Recover the amino acids of this structure.
């Protein structure tokens, strides 16, 4: 029973890769959200092409997480009022269940199940898809190695550092290979070195399987280094105040890319827009 | 550099060994003290009841039976075959009551937590019934269910079911919404949610109540037998007290202590294993 379901899913996956079938395309239309009297974001029209890597940068508290949550369909009507539409492949999407497991979401707070070990957490998505146990384990093991967590496979989350938990939460999403991936500050709280490695790793994975990615970050450099497009959100209520193509070819190497003049120029250009959105005086004065 | 690194490792190993040594020493020490304490109590007991070859008695045997009389009575009790029957009867009352209470408590706890309106409606009623001293209804239960095992099962059930119910209810109400979201985003349905999030988190709440419940179930089964019964440890205890057979009373108290101790230890082990994902095992 379970096997059949898994094979079906796996076949779909393979045929998609072979025939280069398109993965999810996402569009929002006059999308707004307010929590009672607090308006989190307003009137956002965003379009992410199939297989596109879009980064969103914006000041803290501007409504980025709320935006992703609303896109995913995680906001209950009691918690907030949502207006506008979300289209997935031109079909209007309203409920969380409409994703049918095609969505991956790396939350800002790693939501690891505390009663599952690292490996068991990574396997959740595959378990839901009905993958056989041995295969699940093998795939999870591979990803654990990828992010340097060998030796911690059987640790419960409470024994992991913050950075390790982030990595588990990241590979937990990659494990079931969703068509469209939301990442909310996936490298928050990691040291610069690990961050750099993971930036390159995630960019490479994206380059290989071309999923549609919406990547939220505070770090403009990170956005430019990884994404094809950078959207700048205004302060709260967020709206899109900048939309920049990032013309650098893949494969990209975060470290060398950051030393190039073109990078610096683009960084400055986007920073000018972004800095306007910080209400803090100091942020403005950095801009000379 | 390499030397420094090696030095670091050696230092760490040394301190680890030392710390290991200290904990080992402590365990041994505690055990020595424990045995000393137990031995001293035993000697005191024996001394005050005519033992140690002194023949001196601080109390008459009807107040405090001597160790030798107690253990003789215990082995006679066991040899007669009564002990096996009594223990079985009492443990079965406790076990049936406990299992039924867990089943009902969990089913209603989960059910009413989801059907919020029912849970909210019944909350004050349950709280009121819960604050009723359980033993007060023991005679009534005897009238309803007779002198057999059923009345004890009912009493145990009634004592424990609310504890389990309230814990389950709170467990469901306190589900971490982030975890629910995470599983649902990955395409999890109701079954997946129940297995991956609901069950483990409710289980941790139930276990918080289980140790008390296990100890309670034994105590209440025995007390129920005091009120009215034809067999069981409690029944035997009442009879022995009635004929002033203090040695038998002591024998039964020791027996109860041993059973209770084993049950609680086992529950603790199971709890520790099942909740090993917790930062600090409770208790
Ligand atoms: N559940 C909620 N109920 C009420 N207000 C909320 C809720 N969640 C977020 N908000 C408010 O909405 C605004 C946007 O929050 P959000 O978490 O989306 O910001 P963010 O851009 O992700 O910030 P950060 O970069 O710091 O993560 C904040 O003012 C916050 O207080
Ligand atoms: Mg956020």
């Amino acid at each position: 029973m379970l096997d059949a379901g898994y094979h079906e899913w796996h076949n779909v996956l393979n045929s998609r890769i072979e025939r280069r079938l398109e993965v999810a395309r996402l569009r929002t239309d006059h999308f707004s959200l307010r929590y009672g009297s607090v308006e989190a974001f307003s009137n956002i029209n965003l379009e992410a092409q199939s297989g596109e890597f879009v980064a969103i940068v914006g000041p803290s508290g501007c409504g980025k997480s709320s935006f992703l949550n609303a896109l995913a369909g995680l906001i209950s009507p009691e918690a907030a009022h949502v207006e506008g539409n979300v289209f997935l492949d031109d079909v209007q999407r309203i409920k969380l269940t409409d994703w049918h497991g095609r969505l991956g979401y790396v939350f800002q707070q790693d939501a690891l199940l505390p009663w599952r070990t690292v490996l068991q957490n990574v396997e959740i998505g595959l378990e839901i898809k009905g993958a056989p146990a041995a295969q699940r384990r093998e795939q999870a093991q591979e990803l654990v190695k990828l992010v340097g967590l060998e030796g911690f496979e059987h640790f419960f989350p409470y024994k992991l550092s913050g950075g390790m938990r982030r990595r588990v939460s990241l590979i937990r999403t990659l494990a079931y290979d969703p068509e469209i991936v939301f990442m909310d500050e996936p490298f928050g709280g990691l040291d610069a070195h690990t961050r750099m490695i993971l930036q390159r790793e995630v960019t490479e994975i994206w380059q290989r399987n071309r999923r549609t990615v919406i990547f939220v970050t505070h770090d403009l450099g990170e956005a430019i280094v990884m994404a094809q497009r950078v959207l700048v959100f205004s302060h709260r209520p967020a709206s899109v105040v900048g939309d920049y193509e990032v013309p650098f070819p893949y494969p990209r190497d975060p470290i060398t890319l950051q030393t190039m003049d073109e990078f610096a120029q683009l960084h400055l250009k986007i920073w000018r827009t972004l800095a306007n959105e910080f209400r803090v005086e100091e942020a403005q004065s950095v801009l000379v | 550099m390499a030397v420094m690194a090696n030095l670091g490792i050696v230092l760490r190993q040394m301190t680890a060994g030392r710390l290991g040594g200290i904990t080992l020493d402590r365990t041994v020490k505690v055990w020595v003290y424990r045995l000393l304490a137990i031995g001293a109590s035993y000697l005191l007991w024996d001394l005050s009841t005519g033992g140690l070859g002194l023949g001196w008695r601080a109390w008459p045997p009807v107040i405090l039976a001597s160790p030798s009389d107690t253990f003789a009575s215990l082995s006679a009790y066991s040899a007669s075959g009564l002990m096996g029957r009594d223990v079985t009867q009492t443990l079965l009352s406790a076990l049936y009551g406990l299992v039924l209470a867990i089943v009902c408590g969990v089913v209603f706890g989960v059910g009413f937590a989801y059907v919020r309106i029912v849970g909210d409606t019944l909350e004050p009623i349950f709280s009121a019934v819960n604050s009723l001293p359980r033993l007060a209804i023991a005679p009534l239960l005897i009238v309803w269910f007779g002198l057999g095992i059923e009345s004890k099962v009912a009493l145990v059930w009634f004592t424990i079911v609310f504890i389990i119910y309230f814990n389950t209810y709170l467990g469901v109400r306190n589900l971490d919404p982030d975890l629910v979201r995470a599983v649902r985003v990955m395409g999890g349905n109701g079954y997946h949610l129940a297995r991956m999030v609901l069950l483990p988190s409710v289980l941790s709440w139930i276990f918080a109540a289980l140790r008390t419940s296990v100890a309670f179930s034994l105590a209440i089964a025995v007390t129920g037998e005091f009120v009215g019964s034809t067999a069981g440890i409690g029944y035997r205890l009442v009879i022995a007290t009635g004929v002033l057979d203090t040695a038998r009373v002591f024998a039964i108290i020791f027996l109860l202590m041993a059973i209770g101790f084993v049950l609680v230890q086992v529950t603790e082990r199971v709890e520790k294993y099942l909740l090993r994902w917790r930062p600090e095992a409770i208790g």
Observations:
- The domain at 25-102+213-288 of chain A is CATH 3.40.50.300 (Rossmann fold).
